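BACKBONE GEOMETRY TOKENS
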Amino acid sequence: MFPELQFTVWSIPAIAAIAISAWSFTVNKRYTRAPGASALNVLLLAILGWSVCALFVSLAQQPAEKLLVAPIAQFMLAMVPASWLLFCAMHALGRQRIGRRYIAALAVVPVMTMLLTFTNDQHHLMWIAADPVNIDGFKDMRLTLGVWSSFDTLYSYTLVIAGTALLAFTVSQSTNLKTQLFTVICAPLAAAAMNLLQLTGYNPMPGLDLTTTGFALACLVLHYGFLSRRKLSTGKIARQRVVEKLREGVLVVSRDGMVVDANPEALRILGLDRDSTFLRPFEDMVDNLSLNELLTSHRRNTEVGINGRNYEVTMTRLDEEATRSDAILVFRDVTERRKAEQALREATHQLEQAAHTDALTGLHNRRFFMKRLGEEAERVRRHGSALSVLLFDLDHFKKINDTYGHDVGDKVLQQVSHVTRQVKRITDVAARTGGEEFALLLPETPRSGAINLANRLLKAIEAAEISDKGGTTVSVTSSIGVATVTKIGDNVEKFLKEADVALYRAKSAGRNMVCVAETDSA
């Protein structure tokens, strides 16, 4: 049968705690993405459940009736400090989630407390006796606590103090969070004060248990002084989260060369395990000589290759004036940038090649030839060395095109270009300057050398074998004009004109021959 209930003012604290914790839980939902918000929700639910049980205890009249909710009340009570520590740790570390093994470890004592409460009659570890007490008409009970209750109280206060100290230290690292620091310290102190009044027997109003109200008010203070100011992700906490999420690797090395911290990206880059990384010598963990030299030198940056990727590593010493100081290494992946730079260089080279290369033959074009001629002419002006040029074209090339077609004509031009590349020296510049017209620039070459090369080229072109589609061999010859200078004025065109005149003399004399300009100066 449902127990007979008593309605007194002693139920007001529990009702107030229910209202405050329920309201706080509803409001706190807007911060679900903040670090520690999920743990704070669990804390508020635990206070809410504990407050509901406290309300039932205040309404029930007999000790046996009051003890019906004891297992649930004790479980919720034990969950409050555990979830408070969890909130502080997650918030301090900037985590939205935490590992299940840590949650399981914190749940051990609350679960044990609930089980021991269920079975208290067999061992009396939770309470030894539950005696009825009448306080001005209010039917209460006085518990004589057992060993586990004392341990549970000490354990709970330890968790609250540890969590508060951790969160207070984290918040204190930011100069703009003084109000939040005050709130973090005062909120649990207010709840603890209410609880101590009840436990020590110094409650000015015996029977009026304000513990649940104290914890609910603590969450309310926490909300207005901390959460509503939207400080869940600012200051040092925000900096920690930013460093954790950086796409660049960040590694902190002490002045003694020990690795003291690293973000996940740095661990991934270096192939290190977080559990076995810190407080180990840097050189024992990183076998890259460039990185070791960077730490021991006055350089600020270097570029290293790690696991097939290129990283630009920048070192910053935290104390610039000290001879030895902690240092931060920042790893920035520049692999794609280096690939893009290489592709750009290749594309630029290809464009430059296309700008001074004849597309059909692969030889240089007239523009490039004239540029190099100007450079070599300047060399002659400065040093007086010899410079020769060969101008040659193919004999009766129009007849080849008319007889065999332009495709065969193109093959002839390509074959002549191939022969020219074989005959010329490395330092010589070969170019196609017109339809069937070619030129060879011969730096540091006197007239005799130019004539010898021209004769070899003449014979090589004559010996070249080109076939049409039907297999018919197409023969081709050339006429070559040679000009040489040992001093030159500003008129380079005059020098070319002499070679051109020599070329036309070769054509007029019967073709397939070499003719030399009559003078060796211009």
